[in-house]
Design brief:
Belongs to the AcsB/BcsB family. One of its GO terms (biological process) is UDP-alpha-D-glucose metabolic process. The chain is α+β, with helices and mostly antiparallel strands and 772 residues long. It folds into 5 domains: 190 residues, Sandwich (Jelly Rolls), CATH 2.60.120; 132 residues, Chitobiase/beta-hexosaminidase domain 2-like (Chitobiase, domain 2, 2-Layer Sandwich), CATH 3.30.379.10; 145 residues, Jelly Rolls (Sandwich); 210 residues, no CATH class; 31 residues. Helix content is 17%, strand content 30%. It has a 7-stranded mixed sheet with strand order 32-31-33-38-37-39-40, with helices on both faces. Strands 1, 2, 4, 7, 9 and 10 form a 6-stranded antiparallel sheet that branches. Helix 2 runs parallel beside helix 3 and helix 2 packs across helix 5. It is flat, with a radius of gyration of 31 Å.
Length: 772
Amino acid sequence: MPRSAYDPTPRRLLSASIALMMLAAPTWPWQGVLAAPASAAATAPSVQPSEPSEKPPALPAATSTQVLTLRQMGSYGPLALRGVDHARTLDIGVRLDEVVTAAKLKLVFTYSPALVFPLSHLKITLNDEVIATVPLEEKEAGRLVTREIDLDPRFFTDFNHLGVQLIAHYTMDHCEDPLHSSLWADISPATTLTLGKARMTLPDSLALLPAPFFDRRDNRRVTVPFVLPAKADAATLRAAGVVASWLGALASYREARFPVARSAPADTDAIAFVLPGTLPAGVSLPEIKGPSVSIMPNPASPGRKLLVVAGRTPQELQTAANGLVLGKTAMAGNSAQVQSVDIGNPRQPYDAPAWAPTDRPVLFKELVADPQQLQVAGYNPNPIRVNLRVPADLYDWTRSNVPLSIRYRYTAPPTYNDSVISIDINDQLVRSYRLKPLATKDDQNLVSVPLLSGSSVSASNLIGIPAFRVGSNNQMQFSFHIDSQKTGLCSSAATNIARAAIDPDSSIDFSRFSHYTGLPNLAFFANSGYPFTRLADLADTAVVMPDAPTAQDQEALLTLLGHMGKWTGLPSLRVAVVPAAAVDSVRQRNLLVVGTGSAAGMLGKWGKSLPMLIERGRTEITLRDQRSHAWSNWLSGIEEDPVTPTGRAILTADGPLAALVGFQSPYAEGNSVVALTATQDDRVADVLDALENPGKVAQMRGDLTVVRQDQIDGLRLGARYFVGDLPWYARIWVRVSAFPGLMAIAGLLAGLIVALSLFWTLGKLAARRNGG
């Protein structure tokens, strides 16, 4: 969630006016503008707030409750508070169509037993307003303590910052060490924030899109039901898939799910795809005169919205869907006619907006949305985190590292001490450097950085990151620890807060890498959608559906395309969707096969070369010693070939089973097939659930991933094939390097050739000197 400073936006002011118009509720001057006096605060047992100076007006009753955990508020673990006045901040978003009517913070924490308790407490702030203080009592020191604090809802706006600050002392002496080890408190991950919310009815305006279907203030999973005809054809499914991929790109880290309904569902916002004669129950439209997009109250829940994408033909429906995802900015009112759409030039390989460029060094300022993400304050601040997504098929046959040129600035310690910067990738340490003090007093005049206060220095390092620690989806962490230097009594009091920053011009360079890898590898698919996302618009991808897909099959299609949008950052404008009977029409594309029924029957026709084949009432699996391992997703990690198969087993089981299967396309050498299949129609959702769980995604690898309830098994059972582009000499080296014996023989031969050449050359020189 963005960590922007509190600044009420016009959108929040619009929310207030919407509330007045649509809910006919009392005027709420605090919605979007903190009109309450600064002394207003919550009251709770064992909490000491100030009394409100005026009685707040009555709020509408809450219609929903949301419970946010510490992680959902942006913390990667417990909040560690250290020192005299250390503070940490949590982020809370409030949707455009909701207003907070009640809020309760359940604070679970532990604190040091070595404090001076009359002077020590926790200070709770919301958007820089002090709302409560929590005294630290001696009788509860060192134990897990729970406090419930009521927060005044008048202080909530769009993006909110909840601060927890430790004010602590361990002695009455004025020469107290502000960073003494006894000054600590830990906020437990069991801490929660419960929000009571009243729903506001938004106007029927396309200008608010993508709200309410996607709201950037809400960091929960995006769940949007799609209303489709019972016998939707492939063109209609493709139009729905384009919109699903658009929402998936917007959802990003939140994940997205698109259940399918035949009529407008109750108590939710939904999107309907309509052709003449297929209007959902309760929906009335004027005559469809062409591609159009309109928004109206949901007939099943008038307080919710129904977005209707309509056309006279399936082709016009696709035009309307393309117009929605590309022309949303120009839409206004409750209806828009789409005259024409140009989806632009075809994408080039590996140019997805969500991926870092691999043909040049990429600067950190290209990887973050806000430069403030690269700055921290405090002596032991949270790590600076930079997310990095790269193509999964990067490969360096020379086995060199990934160059990282890191530049950073920091408040200099007075002398050499334990101040360090640690550089990690994917929670694995790469390097650690000691932070140097100022070399001379004149060094302060050599660096002019307005963002950093006090005496500061800059440094740079060129680091090689081992390729085996880099995957397709990565996070770099830069942790500063600026230690105090106590040289005598009263000499360590902090005069100003320490600051540190990573320079936005720091860079990481993947341009030395080639695009080459061994497939199938379901780790690549589960983490980045490769090989389908090689072209960001999915121009070389076709989704193969059963001839008569169920609602579960259609949900799988939409959700998988939503994942593609998340992985690329773009809608899948050129993807093809075909029934199993028409698979020959897309034989030159990579194939994503979804569902059971005729789609599973098509897999059966491709023979026993598949690692697993699931049919009605029968499962057939290859028996083979497999060597798939946990680093299948790392760069330069081409695995060894599996050993010879040992047999084939045919099983009949009553329990549910779902699987992802990868293999080479039977139609085109080098093209890929990934099939999502299951023993029952409703078990297809098990794979979709697994793809949303990072722990389960980490177990997907090889050419077969079997999902049995909560258990995930990733195996390599079938043959591999190689895709990409390497020079001929590099291909020889790659193949030879897989056989140490051949490498030894090649080394001996190379040495013999060099020795013979040298012997021949020296002989010629000797003969020339002797006049021969």
